[in-house]
Design a protein that fits this description.
Rossmann fold; 8-stranded mixed beta sheet; binds S-adenosylmethionine
Length: 255
């Protein structure tokens, strides 16, 4: 499966928005679809857990005193400026509709910028100076990419995170959430999950979590991977805990 058609944008952000109380980037039919998905899958609960992870990530970047933040696949619900109020926050998303929607939500004067870029195009965007004059001189960056990389091909993840490693200074931190499984990628259940998300127009890679982590070298894993509910001490429902298919959180560092 390949996701690298730059004109294709799946339902992921609309379903995500519909699953969350704060979201409004969706229609009535997305709400219906999310409600139905909630009857047979843990999807809405996992999206709420992901959102809590995003807040926790920005708060951690604030506590680490990282002056510059890069949020990759930032989505239509910008709140980072509330959680890391002192940082220069550069958000990118590959969907120009989402970039426009998010920009319309930004309060005047918030230190946050939204640009349209895919994971694949990001090195080129950075080289062309998208962060110049917005970031401080420091290249110590807090990088986030939450509930995004399951929609991105292996080679794009590898190339972009290698580029970011070389571009950043030591002390830079990455926090990621991604959907993954603990079983083998060719098992029957992984196939079922892939088919289900394709059916709701949110096709995704269902990777084994250890294979996913291998794509992120040479960044050093500092915490995780672990289910995001466990990271957050979020009491999970029986639909979410221990089923071997989860949203995993990972923290990586450039030493
Ligand atoms: C489920 S939303 C998550 C939004 C946000 N990161 C959060 O956790 O609140 C997934 C986002 O990833 C974006 N996305 C998907 N594929 C992408 C790609 N190849 N490059 C950049 N953004 C992408 C979608 O447009 C969408 O906004």
């Amino acid at each position: 499966m390949s996701f690298n058609d730059p004109t294709y944008h799946s339902n992921t952000a609309t379903l995500y928005s519909a699953a969350l109380d704060e979201g409004d980037y969706h229609s009535w039919s997305d709400s219906m679809m999310t409600w139905l998905m909630g009857l047979i899958t843990p999807f809405p609960e996992k999206m709420r857990i992901n959102r809590a992870f995003v807040k926790d990530m920005y708060t951690a970047f604030n506590n680490y005193q990282l002056e510059n933040v890069l949020d990759i696949g930032a989505g239509p619900l910008p709140r980072g400026y509330e959680w890391a109020p002192d940082a220069n926050i550069l958000c990118v998303d590959h969907n120009p509709g989402i970039t426009a929607h998010a920009r319309s939500k930004l309060p005047k004067g918030a230190n946050i910028r939204y640009e349209t870029s895919s994971v694949k195009a990001l090195p080129g965007k950075i080289k062309s100076g998208v962060a110049d004059g917005f970031y401080s001189d420091s290249r110590k960056i807090g990088i986030g990419s939450n509930a995004v990389l399951m929609f991105v091909d292996d080679d794009e993840i590898e190339q972009t995170f290698k580029f970011l490693y070389n571009w950043c200074e030591s002390g830079s931190v990455i926090r990621i959430t991604t959907t993954a499984i603990t079983a083998k990628e060719d098992c029957f259940r992984a196939g079922m999950i892939r088919r289900f998300f394709k059916m709701v127009n949110a096709p995704m890679h269902i990777r084994n979590i250890d294979n996913f982590v291998k794509l992120l070298g040479p960044w050093r894993v500092n915490k995780g991977p672990m289910p995001a509910w466990q990271w957050l001490n979020w009491p999970p429902s029986k639909n979410t805990a221990g089923i071997g298919f989860d949203i995993y959180g990972i923290e990586l560092i450039k030493d």
